[in-house]
Amino acid sequence: MTTIAIEHLARVEGHGGITVELEGDAVTNVRFDVFEGARLLEPLVRGKRYDEVAPILSRICAICSVAHSLTSLKATESAFGVRVSPQTELLRELLYRGESIESHALHLFLLAVPDYLNYPSATALAADKPAAVLLGLRLKKLGNQIQEAIGGRAVHPVNAVPGGFGRVPTLDQLIALRGSLMQGRTDADAVIDLVASLPAADFCHSDTVYAALRSPNLDRYYGGDEVMVVSNRSRAIVRAADYRELTNEKAVPHSHAKHSTFGGNPFMVGALARLTVNPRRLTGRLAVAMKRLKLLLPADNPMDNNKAQALELIDDLDRALESIEQLLRAGLKDERPMPVHPRAGTGTAITEAPRGLLIHSYTYDDEGRVTAADVVTPTALNAASLELHLRRAVEQCAERDESVISKRLQMIARAYDPCISCSVHLVRQR
Amino acid sequence: MKPLLVIGLGNPLMGDEGIGWHVAERLAGDARLPEHVEVICGGTDLLRYAGEMEGRRRVVLIDAIEDGSATGRVRVFDRDFRGLEDHQEHAHHLSVIQAVRLLRLIAPTSFSLLGISISSARCEPALSPSMAARMPAILRQVLENLL
């Protein structure tokens, strides 16, 4: 038996690893391991007051802090029956959009592009091709600027609170953001040019099941509470309150992250899933860009998630600008958060974090203290699908050269844009 | 020119891994902090603070390092960060060393790193007792480096 082990998967937080076992040419086992210590984040919020929960859970991840914070607030507001104002909805969507711009720019230009061009890191790429790296840094900074203006600081937002915003951004801040976004939109063509120029990554094909929020307004990361699961043969809807049908998490012995399947099938979440579930987003400039990237939906190649992120990145710039225009047209109001009256009950929220569906579910007592909490991250949802695609990549690789297989496996794992640290949550196995 | 900027890096939910964050939090409320110094409690992604670094002559980073030394030992790394691993191990963000190298492309800021040795990183909202006991000495050494 031959074993290929990538123990420290480069650029994967928390030291995720891949193990492939071969008997001759036959693949006998493929494992995407998460061997980081089990995390105890969910118990950390048990007994906490409702207004302490989002600030704690936003710290699960520095890159996804807005996603965790806003999903947490949405779940808490759902438990207490709080309806936020249209202005709050718009500001939260804008804040989410800022995180998506920041995250996609970082992942695409500083982590994925070096792989395609055979550079070991972004710094090595910068030495030869500084324009690609500077483009990523510029867009990342723009995403950060949005999060700082709306969320109150660059990481772990403090302005978003139960019921609304503790401090509404000023008119001057919105006007400054509008100027920065108009400037940022001029980079959209460069984004597509660069991604279209990358060598084809054509080494894994497999029918894939996709799951994403069905967005009634076609373009929402924060709104909506229905997930659509799409395969070649069927479509299904899962409402937020029934999220366990979707997650159906199963502990596996080689990983602290639980694996999720739907109808017995692994499914993929993230940018590619969002475009597959909501194809009506792909009009105008996006449709032209999609053609340039040679992206066909539904895709059977997980590497296409990088192309989908490029499309979302340029769409995010437009949508963020639209949100600001809407806020300015409606007249920005210095409104206070909606009153929150704690009551016993459960609230569940699903949003689209940059790397896919994120679920927070809390049960509160009548004093507004958490009695149970569940956080299911996109990387945990993706784990089973990633293992399936890793297996297919090995099976479809004509060469048995370890370095060739390793490079392909690492590129597929990175295309999923995983966050190993936050994919882990406590599992006890008997 | 803006004041010297100190950024404490780390995840405060991950025990001693968050030592940089904890030190920055303590530093920000410390009466001994010189007037010419600003402090940020950062997360794990240094590039997030690129905007804050603009116009600074010097930025001091405080972060956990794993070097086999006793818990809480403070080591100073200037300019080229010689002897520190350049390997990239993150999905979401660049390592501090790689991030500094990229930031040098866009700004002439001088960086130094105060590395604090840790021996464990696990999900825990507080520092280990041995690290917590070292906090007064760590703060003293950090402040000496800011004068």
Strand content of chain A: 15-25%
Mean pLDDT of chain B: 86
CATH architecture of chain A: Orthogonal Bundle
Please summarize the sheet with the most strands of chain A.
3 strands, antiparallel
Number of helices of chain A: 15
Helix content of chain B: 25-40%
Uncertain runs of chain B are none
The total strand number of chain A stands at 11
Termini separation of chain A (Å)?
Answer: 30 Å
The shape of chain A is: globular
CATH class of chain A, anyone? Mainly Alpha
Concise overview:
The complex is a heterodimer of chains A (430) and B (147). With 430 residues, chain A is an alpha+beta fold. Chain A is built from 15 helices and eleven strands.
Describe the structure.
The complex is a heterodimer of chains A (430) and B (147). Chain A is of the alpha+beta class and 430 residues long. Chain A has one domain (2-22, 25-423): Cytochrome-c3 Hydrogenase, chain B, CATH 1.10.645.10. Helix content of chain A is 46%, strand content 15%. In chain A, the strands form 4 sheets. In chain A, strands 1-2-3 form a 3-stranded antiparallel beta sheet, with helices on one face. A 3-stranded antiparallel beta sheet of chain A has the order 6-7-8. Chain A has a 3-stranded antiparallel beta sheet with strand order 9-10-11. In chain A, strand 9 and strand 10 (356-364) form a beta hairpin. In chain A, helix 2 (50-57) packs antiparallel against helix 3 (65-80) and helix 4 (86-116) packs antiparallel against helix 6 (130-151). Chain A starts with a strand and ends in a 7-residue tail after the last helix. By secondary structure, chain B is α/β, with parallel strands linked by helices. Chain B has one domain (4-146): 3-Layer(aba) Sandwich (Rossmann fold), CATH 3.40.50. Helices cover 29% and strands 21% of the residues of chain B. In chain B, helix 1 (19-28) crosses helix 4. Chain B is globular, with a radius of gyration of 14 Å. The mean pLDDT of chain B is 86. The A-B interface holds A 8-13, 15-16, 37-41, 44, 56, 59-65, 102-103, 106-107, 110-111, 120-123, 126, 130, 133-134, 137, 140-141, 144-145, 148, 154-156, 414, 417-420 and B 11-13, 42-45, 47-52, 86-94, 98, 101-102, 105-106, 122-125.
